[in-house]
Structure formats: structure tokens, C-alpha cells
Amino acid sequence: MVDQRRTVGVLGGMGPQATVDLLQRIVRGTPAADDAGHIRILVDNNPLVPSRIDYILHQRGENPAPVLVKMAQGLSAQGADFLIMPCNTAHLYATEISSAVPIPFINMVDVTVRSVISSNASTQRVGLLASTAVIQTGLFEDAFQAKGISVISPGEVYQEMTMTLIKQMKAGKQNLTDRQCLAEVATSLLQQQADCLIIACTELSALDADMPAQIPVIDTSQCLAEETIKLALGSKPL
To answer: What is the pTM of this model?
Structure first.
């Protein structure tokens, strides 16, 4: 019997903890009886990718795109069958990445939008928990609006709280109150009449906070992990 499994290439390190969190989700979600049942994953865990936020929001520093392209090309050359990237903000460079390699790049934004539509068909407004760069560039807003869904973002104070949490996670300085802060930001989106919440920062995914139970919560990292497993095991075509 021919093994239909595919090798995954991960553009990681943005940040390292978020990358490890995604890998754990893939391992936990893979139906394996032993080591040999798991998925082969090639990981470029590169924490030296130039700051996406500095370059996008503050117009300073180095353009991350060439570094991401080089990582993608390296993973492709090593034998990856498709690529994934556990960083929502870096998906602003998805076109550059996908056009530089001969293998598919699985876009986490597109995967998440499809998940929201398939699991919550009546969704009209999603509340976005994301970096300021993702919000200001309209990365998710454009994708959702194409499907007739509007996007709600936190107000200025709550967005500052969100960015503080993201920076603390990257620095490994999270504490017990961080989960409560994220839940507070989520509640503010609920009060704005969001009928679905999107955790659209992989640092926040790794925080694993308790979200309001009143509405569905879609985690981009979990969406990407589930899609990766299907593609890697050959149960879904590339």
C-alpha cells in the first residue's frame, strides 16, 4: 500500500513559543498509534525574521519578505510537500512566499475564514483578537468582507492591552493575570455585538485563555493545525 502522507514545512520562530504551540496541536490531533503514525515536519524556527510590526506600522527596519522567502525555499529544497506559517501578521507576505516556491503555501487566513463559514454559517460579525498590524492592514477584514462578514476590532485601550499581552508572550513573561486580560478584551468585542471571536495571533493562541462562552471562538492556530493534519495524512488534496 502506497503511503499517501506528505511532509510539512513550517516557517516558524515568529515567535518560537507560538511555533511550538502549533506543533503540539498537530501532534495531539494526529490519530497515531505509535511514532510511525505521526507526520514528518521540517521546521525552520527562525526568531531572527525582521520585525513585521516595526516594518509595517513604523516603516523602520528590514523588510521581512526576503527572509521568509529564503526560509520557504530552504524548506522546499529539503523535501517539504507544502508550507505553513504560524504567524498571522507574516501572512501579509503570503503572496511573496507562495510565488517563490513550487509547492503550496497553506494560507492560515483563508483556512480560518472557511472554518468560520462551515461551522457558523449564520455569522455576520466577527470580533478580531490580533496584532495592531493585522488590524490596520485589514488582512482578515478583506478576507471576511469578501464573504459578506464584517470585522470588529477592540477599541484603542483594549488593543493596547492586546499588544502588551503579545509582547509579553514573545518575551516569555506571561503571568496568571494575562489570561484574564485577554478574556476582558474578548468581552469588549462581545459587547460590540460580535457573534464569533477570532483568535488571530498565534501568541494569543499559546496563551490558552478562557474566552466568553456565549459565542463561538475560532482559533487560527487550531484551524491551521487541523488543516495541516488532513493535508499531511493525504485525506485532503493539496
So the answer is: 0.94
